[in-house]
Design goal:
By secondary structure, this protein is mostly helical. Helix content is 66%, strand content 0%. It has one domain: Four Helix Bundle (Hemerythrin (Met), subunit A).
Length: 145
């Protein structure tokens, strides 16, 4: 499978967040190997890993929001709850079907990328604005704190 790099427009310049975003995208696109006949246990393990990676990422993003007193925190956190619910449902239906068809993968990846573009970017811009992060184009992608 060809690796899909997180678009520059959503790069935070924070090593942890950027790695987590890339891991989520890789795991969701990794469902492709379960598009035909596949081992159902492996599929279930992979789906569980996707969910726990989502959850861990949301926790680390929300901790950073609390630490930096991001004003849009409550709304962003409720979006996390919503996306987690939607993706849990989608992953459950993939497990029930015993395979991940292209439509499932597109459905999941579009939700993930949309959240990054619509919500995470606002948080990223806030972090740059308050000087918590140096924009990648100005620095080397390292946090100042
Ligand atoms: Fe987020
Ligand atoms: Fe995120």
């Amino acid at each position: 499978m060809k690796k899909f790099a997180i678009p520059d427009v959503v790069v935070f310049g924070d090593e942890v967040i950027d790695k987590e975003h890339q891991a989520i995208v890789d795991l969701v696109l990794g469902l492709e190997r379960f598009s035909d006949q596949c081992n159902k246990n492996e599929l279930e393990t992979h789906c569980d890993l996707i969910l726990s990676t989502f959850e861990n990422h949301f926790v680390s993003e929300e901790m950073l929001m609390a630490k930096t007193e991001f004003p849009g925190r409550n709304q962003h956190c409720s979006r996390h709850v919503k996306i987690l619910g939607t993706c849990t449902g989608l992953l459950e239906s993939i497990i029930a079907r015993g395979q991940a068809i292209e439509n499932d993968i597109m459905n999941l990846i579009s939700r993930v990328i949309r959240h990054m573009l619509m919500d995470d970017v606002a948080f990223r811009d806030y972090l740059h604005h308050i000087g918590h992060l140096v924009p990648p184009s100005m620095g080397e992608g390292h946090s100042r704190v």
